[in-house]
Amino acid sequence: MGKKVNLMSWLYCCGMLITAIGFCCPMIKGLFGSSANGFDFIKNIEDGGFVAIGALLIFVGAVAGIVAQFVPQLKGLKLIFLLVSIAGGVILVIGFLTNGGIYKAIGKQLLKRALFGFYLVIVGWIVACVGYFSKK
Asked: Please, are residues 133 and 17 in contact by the beta-carbon 8 Å criterion?
């Protein structure tokens, strides 16, 4: 017979894929009508700010979670990749609230300025958590 497919494992992979897609979509509306996706936050990585580090962790954790679905040696690290991605989101929000200038202005109204990419990332984390922690 064929190999048994674990649907919850695939739900985890779909959640991480939704997170990666949401990262690429516009996440935050700027003060002057422009929008920024996750890669716009990473552009400032040479400054070493919390925002850039958090954005990088979100994307790296999501992509590593997707790769872990297909590489048998990495299956045990799926929870770590999910936690890295979620920790990146927490660091990103902390970076918005503590950095000065335009980040602080956006951070105070984060939910008002959030676009569909932000919500896709949140939904992706929830789907991945359900897929990881659910028992078949």
From this structure: no
